[in-house]
Amino acid sequence: MRRKYFLAGIAFLGLLITFASCSQETESRFKVGMIVEGEIADKPWNEKGYQGLLALEEELNVEIDVVENVETDEEIAKAITKLVEEGTTLIFGHSSEYGDNFYQSSQTYQDVHFVYFNGNYYNDNLTSLTFNSHAMGFFAGMIASQMTESEEVGIIAAYQWQPEIEGFYEGVKFQNPETNVNMELIYDWTDVDGAKQAYARMKNKGIDVIYPAGDAFSEDVIKQASKDDIYAIGFVSDQFKVEPTAVLTSTIQHVDRLYVLATEKYMEGTLKGEIMSFDFKDNYITLGEYNPDVPKYFQKQLNNYIQKYKETGLLPNQY
Asked: What would the pLDDT profile of 38-62 be if each residue is shown by its tens digit?
C-alpha cells in the first residue's frame, strides 16, 4: 500500500510541476497589439506589417491582436484603450499618421511601449522606426534613367515630403542628366483612381518608365503600364510577379522584419524611445529581382554602387 501511495504522490507532484510550468509560461507571455489604417488586405504595406506580427507569434511565442480601420483621433484612442485594458504592453501603429496620437498616449500609459513608422515623434516609451527612402528612390531613379529610350520618366507620389521623390530625381540625373523627370502628387495614400489619372497624363507626355511611389496604387499603375508597354519599378513589396515583362525591379522595404527586431529589443529591455533609421546597409531595404531586359553590366554596376553605399553611407553622386 505504501508503494501505491508513494507512486500516486509522485504522479500528483508531476502534475503540479507541469501545471506550474504551464502557468509560468502563460504568465511569461506578453501581448503585442497592432492598429492599422483600413484593413489588412487593403495594401501591401498592411499585409507586410501583419506578416511581421504573425512572425512574433510563431518565433517569439507572444500573443497578438490586430485592430483594423483605425484612422480618426477617436478611433485611435478607442483602439489604444481596448488594447491596454486587455493587457497589451507593446503597441505598433502601422502608419506615420499615428505619431501625434501615440505621443499623447505614451504620456498617459507610461507602462506601455508604443512603436510606429516613418515619423519624428518619440518619447521614453515611444519609438519611431523609419526607412531611409532617399537612397531607395536614388537607385530607382538610376534604373529608370538607364532604361528609358524617350528620356522621359515619371514618379507618382502621395505627398511632397516623401524622401524617395528627391532621391529619384537625383538618381535619374546622376545616370543621365538629359533625362527629364515628370512628377505628380495625389495627396492621398489610397487614391488609386487619382494615381491612374496621373499616370495617364504622364503617358501622354511620352514617359516610358514609371515609379509609382505609393503601395496602395502601385500595383494598379504597374498593370496599366504593362498594357501600354511601359516599364515600371515596384514599390515597398517585390512586385516583379505582378507584371514580369514590365517591372524592371522593386524597391522593397522589409517592414515585417522590423516587428521582430523591435519586439526582441523590447523583450531584452533595450528598446529605447528614439527615432531608429533603417536602410540598405541594414538589409531592411533591398532591390528585388531584375527584369532580364536590364543589362547585366548595369545590374553589376548598380549592385556595386549599393554595396559601396552600405560601406560608406555615400550615394554615387556624393563621391
From this structure: 999 878 899 999 999 999 999 999 9
CA distance 319 to 286: 22
Among residues 156, 165, 229, 153, the alpha carbon closest in space to that of 198 is found at: 156
Supply the pTM of this predicted model. Answer: 0.85
What dotted CATH number matches 12-16+22-131+256-282?
3.40.50.2300
The answer to whether the beta carbons of residues 253 and 285 sit under 8 Å apart is yes
First to last CA, the chain: 87
Q: Could you report the per-residue pLDDT of 252-295, keeping only the tens digit for each?
A: 999 999 999 999 999 999 999 999 999 999 999 999 999 999 99
61: phi > 0 → left, psi -120 to 50 → alpha, else beta; which?
left
Cite the residue boundaries of each domain of the chain with CATH code 3.40.50.2300: 12-16+22-131+256-282, 133-253+289-318
Q: Which CATH architecture has domain 133-253+289-318?
A: 3-Layer(aba) Sandwich (3.40)
